[in-house]
Amino acid sequence: MRRALFLALALAAGGVQAATVKLRPQGAELTKAVQDALAALGTRELPVTLDSSGGPLLTVGGSGPTAAVPFNPDVVARTVTVRGERRIELNPQGPLPLAQAIRSALTDELGLTAWTPDAARTRLSGADLNGDGKIDLTDLALLMNNYGKTGATVGDLNQDRRVDDADLRLFAAQYKP
């Protein structure tokens, strides 16, 4: 499974309030482009925002030790780890304009099936417990398998360290048969 971007989900008893993507874009232009891209994923029920306090570094072109490594002209972005720091480097001469390159790289990074609000809701709501891009009966089975358990457990959608009726209600709000 792809390594997902660090996501902080703010959850309330009534449902998901927001999804925050942790990513450190370098420069004002790139930051604005990422904010615009994430805003396009959000809805009134689930706004998607940028938290630049952590997560992978996002750059246009290589930086530091990777600056001298040329991009394949057909590649939109590459993900590298330098001295333990994860970086997503967008190809400055790549096949897509910057806005599309950001969407393409973040679609992969977030594990979305498409760059749409529906795909974001499914993936970022927390109810897609097995990470397959769908909220289905398999996810419900995972939740029910942990029902009544406490601690850091799969199915703890409201982050209260127990899987209970509140998590089942959150799941039900996201599940669409």
Automatic annotation (TrEMBL):
Annotated coiled-coil segments of the chain: none
Keywords linked to the UniProt accession: Signal
SUPFAM superfamilies on file: Type I dockerin domain (SSF63446)
Keyword Signal on entry: yes
Gene3D superfamilies (UniProt xref): Dockerin domain
Signal peptide stretch: 1-18
Protein name (Swiss-Prot/TrEMBL): EF-hand domain-containing protein
Natural source organism: Deinococcus aetherius
